[in-house]
């Protein structure tokens, strides 16, 4: 994926098969703001129509479709107009251009782009790399690249090692997947009684370190980061979030069940760490204390 900010506009290009008619109809519906496919990130609270929080005009080129939404028109957020896409068409890519509404939104957007970390993409299903480029009106420019790579995967997919790269900096994680069963009924998760918790433990693989544990603050995710709750390892689960998406809904029985299952996931991971190649040779075991100290 390439994300570019230039001349007050944000452009996103990503390689995919392209929109179908069903996808276009889905993002046009009042009751649906995402492509018509299950388990999309949009289901977690980030739908297509969220672009209108910062933009009035949105241009889309995908597959055989080239159209725009204009929020300044009556029903403009749900009735696309067929238009020719501007220059810079990339075959095999879906391209989206947002014309940012306000200068303060531009400044906030640039700040958010510069604060992006490879941890933002560690739990995404398909996205492997983001190239970010900013060119401001005063002539200054800024670029960065974020990527992730799965290095080793167990036969059943329950554990793996992963490398995150931010320009020339590398972050290494040992990732463990734990299945949670018997979850309470939840209207937003219809017909679903089980889910998956994923823990990602930061490790160092510098010369001679034999994958030492790295104890530093890590965030809790619901696919994308929520915030830091004081853990020394990343946690990803299908938490229900409050409207702002900045915190977990603490009153939800579904969330409480997932929270309680984190302990089982943690001890399952520690048992495998102690039995596997990440075991600290100098101490005999990868102590859980390294990952449970609270700052």
TrEMBL record:
Q: Which residues form a coiled coil?
A: none
| Database matches in Gene3D superfamilies | Histidine kinase-like ATPase, C-terminal domain
Instruction: Please name the Pfam families in this protein's record.
Output: SACS
Show where the Sacsin/Nov domain sits: 14-71
Protein name per its UniProtKB record: Sacsin/Nov domain-containing protein
Recorded source organism is: Trichoderma harzianum (Hypocrea lixii)
């Amino acid at each position: 994926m390439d994300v570019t900010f230039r001349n007050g506009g944000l452009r996103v290009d990503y390689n995919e098969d392209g929109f179908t008619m069903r996808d276009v109809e889905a993002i046009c519906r009042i009751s649906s703001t995402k492509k018509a496919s299950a388990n999309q990130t949009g289901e977690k609270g980030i739908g297509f129509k969220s672009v209108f929080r910062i933009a009035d005009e949105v241009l889309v080129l995908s597959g055989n479709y080239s159209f725009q939404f204009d929020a300044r028109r009556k029903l403009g957020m749900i009735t696309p107009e067929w238009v020719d896409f501007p220059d810079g068409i990339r075959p095999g890519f879906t391209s989206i251009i947002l014309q940012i509404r306000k200068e303060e939104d531009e400044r906030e957007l640039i700040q958010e782009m510069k604060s992006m970390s490879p941890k933002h993409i560690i739990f995404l299903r398909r996205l492997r790399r983001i190239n970010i480029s900013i060119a401001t009106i005063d002539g200054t420019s800024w670029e960065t690249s974020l990527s992730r790579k799965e290095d080793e995967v167990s036969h059943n997919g329950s554990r793996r090692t992963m490398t995150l790269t931010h320009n020339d900096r590398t972050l290494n994680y040992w990732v463990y997947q734990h299945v949670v069963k018997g979850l309470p009924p939840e209207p937003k998760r219809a017909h679903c009684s089980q889910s998956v918790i994923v823990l990602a433990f930061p490790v160092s693989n510098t010369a001679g370190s034999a994958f030492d544990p790295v104890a530093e603050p890590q965030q809790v995710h619901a696919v994308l980061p929520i915030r830091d709750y004081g853990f020394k390892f990343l946690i990803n689960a299908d938490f229900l979030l409050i409207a702002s998406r900045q915190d977990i809904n603490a009153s939800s029985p579904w969330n409480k069940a997932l929270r309680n299952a984190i302990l089982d996931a943690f001890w399952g991971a520690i048992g495998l760490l102690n039995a596997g190649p990440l075991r600290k040779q100098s101490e005999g075991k990868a102590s859980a204390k390294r990952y449970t100290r609270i700052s």
